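Need a sequence for this fold. Nothing fancy.
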């Protein structure tokens, strides 16, 4: 397109355009169009006109052409537009929604926009608008696991009661181990984050071994007692329990929330528990590890320190984990559970049981 055009404006039109610009009751679009033509009459380039009028260059070219074709009157009226498409009937919309919520034909796992457009005879954009209006996202899938523990309700009430109403003169600790943490070293250095470009990291890596983090999360103040070990058998678990036992002041009972991992129920662990009467174990329901508060801590640790980390050895990995534990304990945050057990159980009861 031409960068510079010659716009000839008569003295009469210049006076009219100046009056339009000075009229504060005029619509802003009329004032901008008048400015474009007057600046163009001064033999300014399209770039300079767009800068002064604060519009795009295509807008400058468009209104220069309109003025040349129709004068000042063309600047003050809107051009005719092609009639829009007729709205999709409600019956058709309901049919699209029903089809989306049903199984697609054949062995296809889910509907796609193009597949639905082909099946319905509508355009892809129309299908997308219908899905957006009804909050339908066939490409997304959420997983769930319904616990089959016969004592599910009792265990939920027990653990949630500990979180929301902890007993006096006692600690509530959420205990678990994060096993098989890999010390991964990248084959090449990555590139840092830049404006317009995300950070990069090679997809391949070198393995330097694994470690296991045993952690006890104090739900009352957020402090974490952690220890890295090479294995996660009952021997390491008992050693970690001894570590926690030494850290907790005498005279305080300890209520520990654990999952159903076999190590936590080993006969030697039960013997240890019998020798330490101030300890009480509370096991989460089967397939109910989401009740264990320390899982949230493990999630944050993974995102902030492990997933993008580069570790030359297991010792480097353990040192990074220990530094994170120290940083976390400098400014810990209490764990606040807000959902009562009754609401959790009621929500689970509302979920239909899938047929086998």
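Here you go.
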């Amino acid at each position: 397109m031409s960068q510079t055009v010659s716009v000839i404006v008569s003295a009469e039109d210049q006076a009219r355009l100046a009056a339009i610009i000075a009229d504060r009751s005029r619509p802003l679009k009329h004032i901008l169009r008048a400015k474009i033509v007057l600046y163009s009459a001064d033999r300014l380039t399209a770039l300079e006109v767009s800068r002064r009028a604060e519009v795009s260059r295509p807008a400058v070219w468009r209104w220069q052409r309109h003025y040349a074709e129709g004068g000042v009157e063309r600047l003050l009226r809107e051009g005719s537009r092609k009639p829009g498409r007729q709205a999709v009937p409600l019956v058709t919309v309901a049919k699209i929604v029903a089809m989306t919520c049903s199984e697609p034909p054949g062995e296809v796992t889910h509907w796609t926009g193009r597949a639905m457009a082909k099946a319905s005879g509508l355009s892809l954009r129309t299908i997308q608008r219908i899905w957006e209006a009804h909050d339908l996202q066939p490409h997304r899938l959420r997983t769930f696991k319904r616990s089959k523990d016969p004592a599910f309700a009792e265990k939920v009430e027990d653990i949630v009661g500990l979180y929301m109403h902890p007993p006096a003169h006692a600690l509530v600790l959420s205990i678990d181990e994060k096993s098989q943490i890999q010390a991964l070293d990248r084959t090449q250095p990555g590139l840092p984050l830049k404006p317009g470009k995300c950070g990069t990291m090679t997809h391949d890596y070198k393995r330097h071994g694994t470690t296991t983090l045993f952690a006890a999360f104090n739900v009352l103040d957020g402090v974490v007692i952690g220890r890295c070990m090479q294995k996660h058998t009952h021997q390491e678990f008992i050693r970690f329990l001894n570590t926690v036992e030494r850290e907790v002041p005498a005279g305080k009972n300890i209520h520990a929330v654990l999952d159903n991992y076999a190590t936590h129920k080993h006969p030697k662990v039960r013997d240890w528990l019998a020798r330490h009467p101030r300890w009480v174990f509370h096991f989460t329901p089967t397939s109910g590890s989401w009740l264990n508060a320390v899982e949230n801590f493990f999630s944050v640790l993974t995102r902030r320190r492990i997933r993008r980390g580069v570790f030359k050895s297991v010792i480097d990995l353990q040192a990074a984990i220990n530094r994170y534990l120290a940083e976390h304990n400098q400014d810990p945050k209490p764990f606040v559970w807000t959902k009562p057990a009754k609401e959790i159980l009621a929500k689970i009861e509302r979920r239909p049981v899938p047929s086998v």
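For context: The chain is about 45% helix and 15% strand.
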